[in-house]
Amino acid sequence: MTMSESMPPTEHNHKYFVIKCGGSILNQLPDSFFFDLLTMKQQGYHPVLVHGGGPEISGMLDKLSIQTTFVDGLRITTDEMVDTVEMVLSGKVNKHLVRKIQRAGAKAVGISGVDGKLFTCKQSSESLGRVGEVLQVDSTLIEQLSHAGYIPIISPISMDESFEPLNINGDEAASAVAQALHADICLVSDTPGVYEAINGQKVIFSMLDEQKITSLIEKGTIIGGMIPKVKGAIAALSDKVSSVIILDGREENALLKAIAHEPVGTRIVRKEFENVTY
Which domains are delineated in the chain? Predict the structure, then answer.
């Protein structure tokens, strides 16, 4: 279990808000998304952005004629490719987001799990190569940057006990950061949330828990790529993370609606929070 080294274990911090942007949505985000981040800071919230970059990594590896293989959605990261993965994530993708946020008028700092020993990790398994598992998060650097007025942009790259680079799954990194900050998570994607089609219309489920999600999967309502997304959301819930929101990053003011607890996307909660008014 991840632990924060600087926050009490029982307090839920409503000011921090961890936002995970997958690589597939990054180039579709409108300028309004980044203005939302500025508004959040102006309202006293501390957004923390964790990003992926799968398509960019695959594109670079293709250019270098390096073959990519996936196991259960995780990229097997060989010694040959790990430096390229770090270059793309911590260099190209990370700094692209920093520029976008600063163009919107906010101040951003790009870091990775390597910086300030943010992540303590171990290699997940020999079969996955240089893929890591987050054991602990030291949130000190995130908190210092946030309270100094910056928005931390975190690349999911870390290192093992021998200080060699590790590739971290972005969703797992976001979950670990949220637990360390005792914050909720927003999963930004290109879908409006979990929905079912009724008479040709998408009807969004505003709130779900594990039991309801299991039922929807069994019924075939939740299918395809949404299954690992909702299962990852359930896994992220804990006594430190009370909800995970899945929303479409292209929707106008989606982030501001999320922090204001207005209807947007699908909020996944632990069952004991199901009757809480958001």
Answer: 16-272 (3.40.1160.10)
